[in-house]
Specification:
The chain is of the alpha/beta class and 346 residues long. It folds into 2 domains: 2-155 and 302-340, Quinone Oxidoreductase, Chain A, domain 1, CATH 3.90.180.10; 157-288, 3-Layer(aba) Sandwich (Rossmann fold). Helices cover 24% and strands 27% of the residues. The protein has helices at 42-49, 95-98, 148-151, 157-167, 185-194, 209-215, 226-230, 250-255, 277-280, 294-307, 321-329, and strands at residues 2-9, 16-23, 30-40, 62-69, 81-84, 87-89, 110-111, 131-135, 140-141, 175-179, 198-203, 219-222, 236-241, 256-264, 285-288, 313-317, 336-340. Strands 3, 4, 5, 8, 9, 16 and 17 form a 7-stranded mixed beta sheet that branches. Strands 12-11-10-13-14-15 form a 6-stranded parallel beta sheet. Helix 4 crosses helix 5 and helix 4 packs across helix 10 (294-307). It is globular and about 60 Å long. The relative contact order is 0.16.
């Protein structure tokens, strides 16, 4: 077994504490990754609050370096820069897995933390730790030129927004709206702009307007301005809703053009409700998306490298993890916290 140090929740909703544990010895197709940077995602907060299988080590946005490989590994060598996301295994035989869309694995994919490892049956522990061991299929080469700290959130926020932007045709001649300008939204804004679409940022914060334009927005709409929102009717081919707080969908459905799509990727607490006529009039589509498989993730990383896209991050030492989680819960971040796993080791 391999000795690992990390940060774990030992009671639901409690602060993370230093915790030493073990990962499996390398199997033939395994790769060991030293974790240099790990992003802090709002889903980590939810997992900590509702944790039942304790201790829980969060973190699923990892960038680091290969430190060891199994005997049958062919794609990686010691010293390679790599990234790991929120899926570390799947059944491998269902139609989704065979298509490289393992996030929709029929048996459900093995998550980076909070799941059960298909290889040894132990609980999976996340990236707020010094090392991760996983099968090489779910390790992704990190393209050169990407800042590693800024690239870490691409493994969740990046892939979650890239997939629907590509799926629903964000590109030249299309008008795309981005709802919310947080950890997901600001990355989606950059990507939609790079894809060539006309991009409009919806935000509740007037002070984000200048930043939105700097990141690629052609227009900014304050979602609390009812007159300005009403003026958006029929404008958009696609609206990507990244907001994590409860909100009404009707204003965005009204903003869609005929046959337009509102795709939800944020996860507000509570149920969503809509008036069916909001969909019927104009033959509009309400869709959802979440994460991506190995094929889409590598495509996303190559796209980001080509266009120089990384998340806007605030780097924190790993021993500041509780401060990062507390500030994220207050929405006191622009736009993503990343833990420097080499600094502040316990």
């Amino acid at each position: 077994m391999r000795d690992v140090s990390g940060w774990a929740a030992t009671k639901p909703g409690g602060p993370l504490e230093p915790w030493d544990f073990q990962r499996r010895d390398l199997l033939d197709e395994d790769v060991a990754v030293r974790i240099d940077y790990c992003g802090v995602c709002s889903s980590d907060i939810s997992a900590i609050r509702h944790a039942s299988d304790l201790p829980l080590v969060p973190g699923h946005e990892m960038v680091g370096e290969v430190t060891a490989v199994g005997d049958r590994v062919t794609r990686f060598a010691v010293g390679d820069a790599v990234a790991v996301g929120n899926i570390i295994d799947s059944c491998g035989v269902c139609p989704a897995c065979l298509a490289g869309r393992e996030n929709w694995c029929r048996e459900f994919p093995t998550l980076t933390y909070g799941g059960l490892d298909r290889r040894d049956g132990n609980p999976t522990r996340g990236g707020y730790s010094s090392e991760y061991v996983l099968t090489e299929k779910f390790v992704h080469p990190l393209p050169g030129g990407l800042d590693p700290a800024g690239a870490a959130p691409l493994m969740c926020a990046g892939i979650t927004t890239y997939v629907p932007l590509r799926r629903w045709g964000a590109g030249p001649g299309r008008t795309v709206g981005i709802v919310g300008m947080g950890g997901l939204g600001h990355v989606a804004l950059k990507m939609a702009h790079a894809l060539g679409a006309e991009v409009v940022q919806f935000t509740r914060s007037a002070d984000k307007a200048d930043e939105a334009r700097e990141l690629g927005a052609d227009d900014v709409v304050l979602s609390t301005d009812e007159r300005r929102m009403a003026a958006q009717a029929g404008r958009f081919d696609l609206i990507l809703d990244t907001a994590g707080a409860p909100h009404a969908l009707e204003p965005y459905l009204s903003a869609l053009a005929m046959d337009g799509t509102l795709c939800v990727v944020g996860i507000p607490e509570g149920e969503l409700s809509i008036d069916p006529m909001s969909l019927i009039v104009g033959a509009k589509n309400l869709a959802g998306a979440g994460s991506g498989g190995t094929v889409e993730t590598r495509e996303m990383l190559a796209f980001c490298a080509e266009h120089g896209i990384v998340a806007e991050v605030e780097l924190m030492r790993q021993d500041q993890v509780n401060e990062a989680l507390e500030r994220l819960a207050r929405n006191d971040v622009r736009y993503r916290f990343v833990l420097d796993m080499a600094a502040g080791r316990p």
